[in-house]
Write a structure and sequence with these properties.
The chain is of the alpha/beta class. The protein has one domain: Aldolase class I (TIM Barrel, Alpha-Beta Barrel), CATH 3.20.20. Strands 1-13-12-11-2-3-4-5-6-7-10-9-8 form a 13-stranded mixed sheet. The longest helix has 13 residues. The two termini are 31 Å apart.
Length: 383
């Protein structure tokens, strides 16, 4: 095979090259990168479309009514996604997260979930299938998603104040419908529900305590995410980042918390538990998570790969290039599609060469613009 390096959008139609696979490598269930990090988590974007225009992800000024989305034939089919997921699982992937865009805009997504639920890890267990959504369609789809085999769901919600939320999603969508979606997910039996709040200083940081009070004891885990410099369109500035340490101090001034141990290797969120009257963590009250990519990098044990909706493999949320797996599936360059062994070997070669640690290096880069390198957009590969 010829090496193919994928430039970041909008150069989707360029003539590209694929990574060479010198020898076929049989999967062993343990695939490590150049820093010894295993591959355990695969995040799959199923659409580049979204019905929100959040300014930290798909600002309306860039993604306007004239924005050109990928044509349907460019997207990976459900069968192609399932095939790749099976090969990644042979290398040790245990968790599959479906993202977007807004994944619930992908027609018949339940069929993909059904296919993925039939796969097995190297230990013979079913994969942990999760989905990240803005919640706008969750109320009507939660039951079907659960029945198809979805295990968990994460809902993005940046505030409880309706005016703030409408302003942040920039399509005048009411917060009440997202809250109804969360309730529907709980009623459908989806467990381990998480709520992600991206915090921007001066925009919605006054919503931190109200959000904490609302979800404390609700059965959902609220996670606060530092505003990140993903892509090149969200106008990221360091002075709009509220460090998690400061956020935690605000919370603890009103609601006592105690630190909790990580629940799994490579976990991105620092866990803090709500305390009861005895000063100890009360599981009935639940916990929060702090995702601090800007101020407390977690690159050291990052075990996630990301697959775009058109089959580009990215090794970091802040990646400047990807690898074209779709051409291996479809044989677009020479008309000959690769077999499973060749694709699995290509995945192994790519992951073995991985050395990404952007967040650890960010502080050494100059200015608010980070490295200055064009990076993949969050809306293209999910968060």
């Amino acid at each position: 095979m010829v090496e193919r390096v994928i430039p970041i959008v909008p150069q989707r139609g360029a003539q590209l090259r694929t990574p060479a696979v010198p020898t076929l490598t049989a999967p062993t269930g343990l695939l490590q990168d150049s820093r010894g990090r295993p591959l355990r988590d695969l995040r799959i974007s199923v659409t580049d479309r979204c019905n929100f225009r959040c300014n930290y992800c798909m600002p309306k000024e860039v993604f306007d009514k004239d924005h050109v989305y990928l044509p349907h034939h460019a997207l990976l089919s459900f069968e192609e996604i399932t095939r790749l997921a099976r090969l990644f699982m042979a290398h040790g992937v245990r968790k599959i997260r479906l993202t977007g865009g807004e994944p619930l805009l992908r027609k018949n997504l339940e069929k993909l979930i059904e296919q993925l639920a039939q796969l097995r890890t190297v230990d013979g267990t079913a994969p942990d299938i999760t989905l990240t959504t803005n919640g706008s369609l969750l109320a009507r789809k939660a039951r079907a998603l659960k029945d198809a085999g979805l295990n968990r769901v994460t809902v993005s919600l940046d505030g409880l104040d309706d005016a703030v939320f409408r302003r942040m999603n920039d399509v005048d969508f009411p917060v009440s419908q997202v809250l109804a979606g969360i309730e529907a997910a709980q009623a459908a039996g989806l467990t381990g529900i998480k709520v992600n709040m991206v915090v921007k200083r001066g925009t919605n940081d006054h919503e931190i305590v109200p959000m904490a009070r609302h979800f404390r004891g609700s059965g959902a885990t609220l996670r606060f995410i530092e505003f990140m410099d993903v892509g090149a369109t969200n106008g990221w500035r360091m002075d709009e980042v509220l460090p998690s340490a400061e956020l935690l101090a605000r919370l603890q001034a009103q609601l006592p918390l105690v630190p909790l141990e990580p629940s799994a290797p490579g976990e991105t969120a620092q866990r803090w538990g709500w305390t009861g009257s005895n000063g100890l963590h009360d599981p009935l009250l639940g916990e929060i998570g702090l995702i601090s990519s800007v101020t407390q990098a977690f690159c050291g044990d990052c075990n996630r790969a990301r697959l775009s909706t058109e089959g580009q493999l990215f090794l970091c949320l802040f990646a400047g290039q990807g690898y074209d797996l779709r051409s291996l599936l479809r044989g677009q360059s020479d008309g000959i599609a690769a077999d499973d062994a060749s694709i699995a070997s290509a995945i192994a070669a790519i992951w073995h060469g991985r050395s990404d640690r952007y967040s650890q290096l960010r502080s050494s880069l100059s200015g608010d613009a980070g490295s200055g390198q064009r990076r993949v957009e969050m809306s293209y590969i999910g968060g």
